[in-house]
Every structure is written in structure tokens, then in C-alpha cells.
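In this supplementary section we document a worked example of the pipeline. Step one takes a protein sequence of length 112 as its only input; no multiple sequence alignment statistics are reported here. Step two produces a three-dimensional model, which step three serialises into C-alpha cells for compact storage. The input and output of this example are shown verbatim.
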Amino acid sequence: MKNVLKTQSDHEWTVVSIGWVMGYSIDIIVPSINRYHPDIGPWFALVRRKPLTIAGTGNDVFAITSALDVTKATAELLKSRIKWCHFTFMQGTESMWLQFPVEVISFSIEVH
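The serialised model returned by step three reads:
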């Protein structure tokens, strides 16, 4: 589809790339009962286990992106008069598992 879009000039387009969406991937932040989209893949089931087991040192940086923030940023992009790039990357706050807010993670973490 991207190749077809690249060949035309009638419509402006961009691919919005956001990586992991906070509410999608971390059920402890936004429980699945409070969101529209279902869980995906086996990794997300591991997040619900207690203790949470993570790979790496726990100090590895990852981005947390809110679906609501992506919606707001996309709305601003639609209102913009600037010509769009073919790819738009959006990223929320960077964090590390061992520095994640205590109120968000109410259970222990094992690092492997």
C-alpha cells in the first residue's frame, strides 16, 4: 500500500509509528475491562504474573506511549499546514522497569 501511495500526488499521507501503546501492553496501567482493544500476543500475559519477570537489567530504557496522546498528536498533524513526511514517529515518556512508578507496579519484579 505504501508503494502505491508513494506513486500518487492526489492525497497526502503518512504512516504513524508509535511502537508499544501503554494501555495496550501493560494491563496493570489500563485494565482490559477499561479499554476497547484486546490483549495481543503471549508477551502481555507475562505482565500479569506476580512477580513480573523482565529480561535485562531492569535499567534498560523503553518508551511508554499513551493511546490518548497518540490521538491528540494525530489530530494536530491533521490540522497542520506543513507537508507530511511519509513516516511520522511518536514516542511518549522514556522509563526503566526499576524506575517505573511504584503506584503503577504494585507487585515485585524479578530481573533476569
